[in-house]
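[Q] Does anyone have a clean structure-token version of this?
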Amino acid sequence: MELVSKLRRRAADGNPIRVGIVGCGQMGSGLAHAINNIGGMTVAAISDLDAERGIRTFLEMGRQRDDVVVVSEKGKAEDASRSGKAVVCTDALLMPALDALEANVEATGVPDVGARVAYDSIMNRKPVIMLNVETDITIGWYLDRLARKAGSVYTVASGDEPGVCKMLYEQAVLMGFEVVTLGKGKNNVIDLAATTESCAAEARSKDMNPKMLAAFKDGTKTMVEMCAVSNATGLLPDVAGMRGPKVELNDLAKVFIPASDGGIMSRKGVVDYSTGAIAPGVFAVVRSDDPRIRKEMKFITRADGPYYLHFRPYHLCDLETPQSIAEAVLLGEVTVTAENMNSEVVCTAKRDIKAGERLGGIGGTDWYGKILRYSEARAVKAIPIGIGAGSVALRDIRLGSVLTEDDVRLDDSTFVYRLRRIQDTLLGAK
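[A] Here you go.
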């Protein structure tokens, strides 16, 4: 790849990759600091509803307050950037239009914002790197194809579980293995009742957004991450919601295999997760029946096979995202995209819902996300989580029920809803 040498040449030429970051929460600000330590790449602009967060991040990175400019118009933003100023804006849609930026990273976690920023970046032929996987699993299939047609790049970022799982997957396939299970570690057992309110104190102690923490605890984020992996690889959840057993590291290759060989899966070729000590790692359980490969593996790893564990003990989230930025800008390559819609994460009632109630979004009090196979989700007209916010219940919905188009009236005013309907039409025509 020679990414580092290419970046060094950009640095020597005084022409670093100028990156815009949309969303300056935990992930966005962490990414900014990572980029600030990389020669040949610089954060030129930050967008956040709270401008102070962008200002504070630039100051933490060593910029002087007089060098940080808050703008609300494209022309002023371009002028400020050309003069060497650090740009902060509260309008996310200003970022895709800025000529001064070579790439945008979307880190809000809000599906509708992600949809708009990604679409506009593509239309401006500007690579867009998604830390917003919620948007990707909803309309990423369409955005990827739109980007390829427009001569741009759309990709999910390295560092988050989809990126590092895809890396393990490709490495295994390129060594001649069959991928049996691709999975991630989750550091706690799912609490389906977790809400913003129940997570508020812990979120404050960890300097996290309570909605984001609730989405981790109720399992939605795990479902989202592994759905993106499924759509990128063709591997499927074995059961609705996946299995998620607590398994020690040394037993992963004994448990995440078909039941016919002593494991818990009904088939090969699945995505799943495990709780406990393996977090924050990711893993691939692979198989080979080739005697020579098994001989090599016995010599190198002392494992008998035919199942083997490939394990990466970490994923570093936003800190690894600069690799995806460099690959997108310098090589025109993607890290993770949806090859097909193999899985869907659907809204599942977190409580009894009454007819007439307006429902909130991810990490709220109304629903959590559950992964289903795409064919199963479409068969029951299940509501994807990316378009569930703002819907109104048309009838009483019981706790634990998958929300369907017969249960709720969706908010059709959002941009992500419009793109999803385009995607549905295109997929239906395949």
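[Q] Thanks! Anything notable?
[A] The first strand starts at residue 17 and ends at 22.
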